[in-house]
Design brief:
This protein is an alpha+beta fold and about 140 residues long. It has two domains: about 30 residues; about 110 residues, hypothetical protein tt1805 (3-Layer(aba) Sandwich), CATH 3.40.1530. Helices cover about 40% and strands about 20% of the residues. Strands 1, 2, 3, 4, 5 and 6 form a six-stranded mixed sheet that branches. A hairpin with a 4-residue loop joins strand 2 and strand 3.
């Protein structure tokens, strides 16, 4: 009787551990990086490519929304913000969308947009990139219409 109880306890402990380990691994697969880590990585990658990128506003380090202004150094810029939360892929990875329907807008208009966003959410991050070609360096993470 004792050996069967020991076996049952050992079995349930093993099962519990494997369930815990499986849920831990599943959680790690679908966990999103903290915003601070993502922004630091983005800035470091731009620096390694000799592209000027600066953090102009620091938000919540864990989950603040990130806006990226790509200044084309001619008075025009491209503004990217977080894609809507309704997209399935957004839950697991950061996705971006153009904040304006036009490909590029006046830099003052983009700053006004950021200020309106700050009124709604004071925890946003703003990264500014200077690139004459208007490259966003977001690769396939931009949601296209």
């Amino acid at each position: 009787m004792r050996s069967s109880v020991r076996w049952l306890i050992g079995w349930s402990a093993d099962l519990g551990w494997s369930v815990f380990r499986g849920s831990l691994l599943l959680g790690l697969l679908f966990m999103r990086l903290k915003t601070e880590i993502w922004v630091k990585g983005y800035l470091r990658a731009r620096s390694s490519e000799n592209v000027m990128a600066v953090l102009s506003r620091r938000g919540d380090e864990d989950a603040g929304a990130v806006f990226i202004i790509v200044d084309m150094m001619n008075g025009q810029c491209r503004l990217f913000g977080p894609a809507p939360a309704g997209l399935e892929i957004v839950d697991r990875q950061r996705r971006w969308e153009h904040c304006f329907t036009d490909e590029s807008v006046d830099l003052d208009r983009a700053r006004e947009y950021i200020n309106r966003q700050l009124d709604m959410d004071p925890d946003i991050w703003v990264v500014e990139v200077e690139d004459r070609l208007g490259r966003d360096f977001l690769d396939d993470a931009v949601v296209r219409d």
